[in-house]
Amino acid sequence: MEAKFCMTCGAAMETRDVDGTVRRACTVCSFVHWGNYSIGVGALVTKDEKILLVRRAQEPGKGRWTNPGGYIEQHELIQETIVREVMEECGVKAEVTRLVAVRDLPRSIHNVYIAFELDYICGEPTPDGVEVDAAGFFSLQEMETMPVADFTRWLIDVALHSTQAGLVEDEDPIIQMDGYGLYRVPKVSAQ
């Protein structure tokens, strides 16, 4: 969908070259529509060597088993989003431990998907009945006969077979920046 009116002042938009790329720009103010983007997050929650999966009740992927996840809200840190999404979709409380993967999918709406590993805290998987119609913890052996989405299979492999620590939240950055969600390679401890 092409932006027709400015989101800042409401004036008409036009197509023009902005820094070497054709973009929609306001005819009155300095607003530029940089593109259409979405950011999704996914959870890899493990309990007793089993992975939490949900069965999609809606398209895309209706009937397929995936890891819980969703889209970030405008004023929500991504680590808060994934904890919320796991609770909303299947009633499981979990805590982020590390960032394990990023998927970049450029298309009409450019999607970036950030996958986290989470520690299970409590709760029995119970589907929300809207986005998902089934939920549970499953072993790799059980998943072999289930219609698990290809991307979810890839994420599970990444989480279970990573040899590095992944990115972890920087809870004590050298410079405090309120409102930022900062992730880094773990600090090397002094020997």
Automatic annotation (TrEMBL):
InterPro entries: NUDIX_hydrolase-like_dom_sf, NUDIX_hydrolase_CS, NUDIX_hydrolase_dom. Keywords: Hydrolase. Residues 36-161 form the Nudix hydrolase domain. Pfam families: NUDIX (PF00293). PANTHER family: NUDIX HYDROLASE 23, NUDIX HYDROLASE 23, CHLOROPLASTIC. This is NUDIX domain-containing protein. It comes from Paenibacillus alba. The lineage of its organism: Bacteria, Bacillati, Bacillota, Bacilli, Bacillales.
